[in-house]
Amino acid sequence: MTLVRDKLVTDNLDIECKIDDVPFSYITGLSYKHIVDAARVVKIRIGGIEPIANLHIGSEVILKAGRGETTHNLDFIGIVTQINPSFTESEITAVDYITHLQSSEIVNYKEQDLIGKDLYYLAADACNYKNIDTSQLLEGSGIKATRDMGLSGFQSRRRFIKKCFDFLTPINKTDEYSEAVALQWRYGIRRNNVMDFWLEDHKNFKSEPILTITENNNTLTGPGIVSDINSTQMINSATYLSSVNTDVFATASDEDSIERHGVYGKLYTSTSERLDRLEELAYTTILLHKEPTVTYNIMMNNGEYIMLGDYIKVKVSTHDKGILLPVVQLSHVITDRVESIITVGTPELSITEYISSSLD
Q1: Which is nearest to 28 in space by CA: 11, 9, 49, 5?
Q2: What burial letters (b/e) apply to 33-65, b meaning 16+ CB within 10 Å?
Q3: d(CA 202, CA 218)
Q4: Contact of 131 with 78, CB cutoff 8 Å
Q5: Residue 108 and residue 116: Cα distance in Å, rounded?
Q6: Side-chain half-sphere exposure of 357, counting CA atoms within 13 A
Q7: How many helices (H) and strands (E) are present in the chain, helices listed first?
Q8: What does the alpha-carbon distance between residue 223 and residue 220 come to, in Å, rounded to a whole number?
Q9: How big is the chain by its Cα radius of gyration, in Å?
Q10: What letter does residue 359 receive in the DSSP assignment?
Q11: Cα(330)–Cα(308) distance, rounded to whole angstroms?
Q12: Taking a C-beta distance cutoff of 8 angstroms, is the pair 79, 61 a contact?
């Protein structure tokens, strides 16, 4: 069935939509929000109430949005999760297929099926569910599942995937970096129903930005570049204690960070009794969290060509030489123009994560 091309939003962006295989017009506005390691959320505004009369929770949405045949990062496949009818303007909220992983049947992940397997492929296998395309997940990480990771047990697919990604943090000490670094794997459906895993490697000397942005860039809108530097996720002294044998523990500290920022210590427990494993966990934690969280929100026009995982170099008064950071969140509002907020740096903690970290 041919999709209906809708120009009600903007003449500069082609919009095509069908819901439950029915061409869908009357679109007056779109908004997208996407954060790393989470589902992409799309809100569709429609003139009046009649067009949504036959929609229901779970209706399938296929949305094509882009410029010409090349820039189509806004293409989306998902399901309706909320309907807000109104006689003047109604709104539909749709979420991509990662929502299926969150609400999946509970799976019993057995230890004997996990130990020694690559975490990348374990997570990829868990993502292979409800029409999620995992055909591109071929890279592997080289990080093997171990008993102390606590991956086994009854849980949703999303919970299992999160556990895998918590340990997908390889350490690199090569001459491609100024110092030893712990890298972070991320996941998300960045277009249509295709699941992507990517490695945040912005500290690599060879990494290049898709965009260099300065405070006087003519694509900026409103306040332009808004920075946030804070200590909410900072840990420069980590202790890992064996929950099996409390006489076994390891502490890693970064003295340079402590001297500059003060002590930010945290205690963790692990089922491992191996001192070398506890030392590895503590060292990785310090490499990931020894510096303050740096985030920039870039408010700009026409940023829909930027994807999660892209690198942007930000040049501001505090970093006049520029700092290269990964894109961790995207927000687009599309009416008669495209207004984007591109967040680079470190993703903010969820409310649950923030409360948990505050209580530790």
Answers
A1: 9
A2: bbbbbbbbbbbbbbbeeebbeebeeebebbbbb
A3: 25
A4: no
A5: 18
A6: 15
A7: 6, 23
A8: 8
A9: 22
A10: H
A11: 7
A12: yes
Distance, in Å, from the CA atom of 82 to the CA atom of 89, rounded to the nearest integer, reads 15
Mean pLDDT by 10 residues, the chain (360 residues): 44 83 87 97 90 89 83 91 91 96 96 97 98 97 97 97 97 94 97 97 96 93 94 96 96 97 97 96 97 95 94 88 95 91 86 50
Residue 120, burial from CB neighbour count under 10 angstroms (0-12, 13-18, 19+)? buried
Extract the tokens encoding 83. Answer: 């309907």
Beta-carbon contacts of 328 under 8 Å, excluding residues fewer than 6 positions away, are: 35, 36, 295, 308, 343, 344, 345, 346, 347
- The pair of structure tokens assigned to 216 is 């006087």
pLDDT tens digit string along 333-360? 998 889 999 999 998 765 455 444 554 5
Torsional class of 169: left (φ above 0), alpha (ψ -120 to 50), beta (otherwise): beta
CA angle at 260 for the pair 267 and 315, rounded to the nearest 5°: 110
pTM of this prediction exceeds 0.85: yes
| C-beta of residue 151 within 8 angstroms of C-beta of residue 125 | no
Residue 34: partners with Cβ closer than 8 Å, 6 or more residues away: 40, 41, 188, 190, 308, 329, 330, 331
